[in-house]
Amino acid sequence: MNRGGWPTGRLSAVVFDLDGVLADSLDVMRQAFTAAYEEVVGAGEAPFDEYRSYMGMYFPEILRRMGLPAEMEDPFVRVSAELASEVPVYDGVRPMLAQLRARGLRLAVATGKSGARARALLGELKLIGLFDAVVGSDEVARPKPAPDIVVRALASAGAPGAPGGRPGVAAMVGDAPADMRSARAAQVVAIGALWGTDDKAALLAARPDAIAYQPSDVTALCLPASKLAS
């Protein structure tokens, strides 16, 4: 972990990305993307590696940036839903969330998925009850890397304080550069989650305020003010 520049103020809320942070959905995303590509585009290898470079962003925006047909969204969503039961929760995530809630922190999810898809997956994973709010990219004017989704998640979770106010009122945990940029734009602490990303160099290059190698590191980072300052 790295606390360089870590604020001394007590954290009151933590916002999490979903894929690559709470759940290991990479294989399901690969299958869904490949199926959608074959159904809409046709023959040829689906450019999944390029898709991965845009992780954290809203799927329609990823398609636009890749120059792929918007019609790929429907089969991608359909296959993802069909395979949702195959998505595992990362080891250590459940106790991390339980411990943060026990400390009185407000918890929220801000994801590149649509809100309906995110809530459905979290329900399938039996994690939904641990969060005060879940916000999808279709529920804000500007998805990541803009700050809107983090701001909306904090407000919906009833987090005390306001983004852009006293430093350290909230943190964002993400595995992609888009998460770090969104957190920084919302003026909350950016925590880079290394346990799920397969591009650690890109995440570190986004200059997170702190690094978590495993979920328990997030629990350790979110300490009372007196311990943070020590």
The rough form would be described as globular
Lateral strand order in the biggest sheet: 3-2-1-4-5-6
Structural class: alpha/beta
Beta-strand content: 5-15%
Number of strands: 6
What is the overall pLDDT average? 88
Termini gap:
15 Å
Give the oligomeric state: single chain
- Helix percent reads 40-55%
Q: Could you list the spans in which at least 5 consecutive residues all have pLDDT below 50? A: 224-230
Largest sheet: 6 strands, parallel
Q: Over all CA atoms, what is the radius of gyration?
A: 17 Å
Structure description:
By secondary structure, this protein is of the alpha/beta class. It is 41% helix and 12% strand. The chain contains eleven helices and six strands. It has a six-stranded parallel β-sheet with strand order 3-2-1-4-5-6, with helices on both faces. Strand 4 (170-174), helix 8 and strand 5 form a beta-alpha-beta unit. Helix 1 crosses helix 4 and helix 5 (93-102) packs parallel to helix 10.
Jot down its keywords.
single chain; 230 residues; 11 helices; disordered C terminus
Brief account:
The protein is an alpha/beta fold. The protein has helices at residues 26-40, 48-52, 59-66, 73-82, 93-102, 115-124, 148-157, 177-185, 200-205, 215-221, 225-228; strands spanning 13-16, 106-111, 133-136, 170-174, 189-193, 210-212.
Note the topology.
Elements (H helix, E strand, L loop, with lengths): L12 E4 L9 H15 L7 H5 L6 H8 L6 H10 L10 H10 L3 E6 L3 H10 L8 E4 L11 H10 L12 E5 L2 H9 L3 E5 L6 H6 L4 E3 L2 H7 L3 H4 L2
Parallel strand pairs: 1-2, 1-4, 2-3, 4-5, 5-6
Helix pairs in contact: 1-4, 5-10
